[in-house]
Amino acid sequence: MKNEVIDGLIYAKEIDQYVEIPEWLQHIVSVARTISEEAIIHYAHCGTGASDHWFEPYIDIGTEEDAKSIVEELTSQGIYVVADYYERFEDDQLGLEEDPEMLWGVRIPGVKLSHKSHIECKRCIT
After folding, report:
1. Domain spanning 5-124 has what CATH number?
2. Which of 7, 69, 78, 103 has its Cβ near the most Cβ atoms within 10 Å?
3. What are the pLDDT digits (tens) for 20-72?
4. Would the pTM count as exceeding 0.85?
5. Would you list the domain boundaries of the chain?
């Protein structure tokens, strides 16, 4: 099972058709919020160089239990997601890094958004 974007569409197994990415991500967020009202979608800025960059969506969630429950529910719907435990650094005003905060999230592998797609998703998904 994998998430595959083809010509800006992604296959939604639950309804057996290809859908627009914002619609698909909105569904993911809605499912996540049935488990935790704190679920928020964010976009990681990724890339290999100055001209090769993209955005990857992920769900920010507070606890390991919630992350694993979201993964279980979305996986049962044919959506490939992975629980992720990661460090978030906060820079203070002087540019000094504070100790990292450890957070749980849910990664959505295989979805790489262009800058234009990223802006569209941010506008559409609540």
Report:
1. 3.10.28
2. 69
3. 999 999 999 999 999 999 999 988 888 887 777 888 899 998 899 999 999 99
4. no
5. 5-124
